[in-house]
């Protein structure tokens, strides 16, 4: 309740025309930027795949040439049909996978790999790429499905990492730790595709309940975007607590 002795509340200063214009511009930028960047990224990736696949297709079967012949257009007219290379790549990849599962395909792959193993330089490159591909794309492997906290670069400072696998072979034998050694990928901010591979004792790894996607958002945003942050601010329990109660 106000009394005659209370001072008048200070009203917020009114923004001028330039301030309102700046606020509207920033609001519009927040709305447009995610949509525009998503469309640009998809368009660029599709164009990159088309540029890699279409040169391998005979010119007479290019989609722009087929459209020109169908509509009777001038051959000099340039028609850019995006996405055909992606469809060709998907169909070709599925066909190769189907053949590789058969007896003839497995026999051909073993024969080709035996030839590669006899080539000194190609052997090292092929084996490394094959191991990475099998780790990332194999359906029976579980990789980068758990986010974690580790103390890096020193004790008392925590960083988000992603558990890849348990260390094996010489790394595990010569680490000099009685505990199991975990392979942890430590991404950098704001580009999570680069980072460091760390071998950390399992006792020093704290697994997180948040998903890898939420952890990646936290890394990319430099700590500005927290998973389920608004729900927690409003008094709701985190999602992982709800899952535990269910």
SSE map:
Layout: H1 17-53, H2 63-71, H3 84-100, H4 103-117, H5 120-137, E1 146-151, E2 158-166, H6 169-174, E3 181-187, E4 195-201, E5 206-207, H7 212-220, H8 229-233, H9 239-245
Helix pairs in contact: 1-3
Determine and state the CATH class of the domain at 146-245. Mainly Beta
SS field, number of helical segments: 9
The overall pLDDT average reads: 77
Instruction: List SSEs in N-to-C order.
Output: HHHHHEEHEEEHHH
Total beta strand runs:
5
Work out the strand percent. Answer: 5-15%
How would you sum up the global shape? flat
Proportion in helices: 40-55%
CATH topology-level fold name of the domain at 146-245? SH3 type barrels
| Alpha carbon gyration radius | 28 Å
Largest sheet: 5 strands, antiparallel
Task: Summarize this structure as a short list of keywords or feature phrases.
disordered C terminus, 5 strands, SH3 type barrels, 246 residues, five-stranded antiparallel sheet, alpha+beta
How would you characterize this protein structure?
The chain is an alpha+beta fold and 246 residues long. It has a domain at 146-245: Roll (SH3 type barrels). It has helices spanning 17-53, 63-71, 84-100, 103-117, 120-137, 169-174, 212-220, 229-233, 239-245, and strands at 146-151, 158-166, 181-187, 195-201, 206-207. Strand 3 (181-187) and strand 4 form a beta hairpin. The radius of gyration is 28 Å and the shape is flat. Mean pLDDT is 77; it is low at 239-246.
């Amino acid at each position: 309740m106000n009394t005659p002795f209370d001072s008048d509340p200070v009203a917020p200063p009114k923004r001028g025309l330039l301030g309102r214009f700046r606020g509207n511009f920033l609001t519009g930028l927040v709305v447009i930027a995610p949509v525009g960047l998503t469309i640009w990224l998809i368009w660029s990736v599709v164009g990159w795949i088309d540029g890699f696949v279409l040169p391998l297709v005979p010119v007479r079967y290019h989609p722009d040439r087929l459209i020109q012949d169908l509509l009777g257009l001038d051959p000099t007219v340039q028609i850019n049909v995006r996405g055909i290379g992606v469809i060709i790549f998907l169909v070709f990849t599925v066909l190769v996978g189907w053949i590789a599962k058969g007896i003839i395909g497995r026999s051909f792959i073993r024969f080709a790999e035996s030839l590669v193993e006899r080539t000194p330089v190609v052997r090292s490159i092929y084996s490394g790429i094959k191991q990475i591909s099998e780790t990332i794309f194999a359906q029976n492997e579980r990789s980068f499905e758990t986010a974690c906290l580790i103390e890096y670069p020193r004790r008392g400072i925590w960083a988000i990492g992603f558990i890849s696998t348990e260390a094996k072979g010489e790394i595990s034998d010569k680490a000099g730790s009685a505990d199991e050694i975990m392979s942890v990928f430590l991404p950098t901010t704001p580009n999570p595709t680069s980072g460091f591979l760390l071998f950390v004792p399992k006792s020093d790894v704290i697994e997180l309940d948040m998903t890898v996607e939420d952890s990646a958002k936290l890394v990319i945003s430099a700590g500005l975007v927290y998973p389920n942050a608004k729900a927690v601010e409003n008094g709701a329990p985190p999602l992982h607590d709800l899952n535990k109660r269910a």
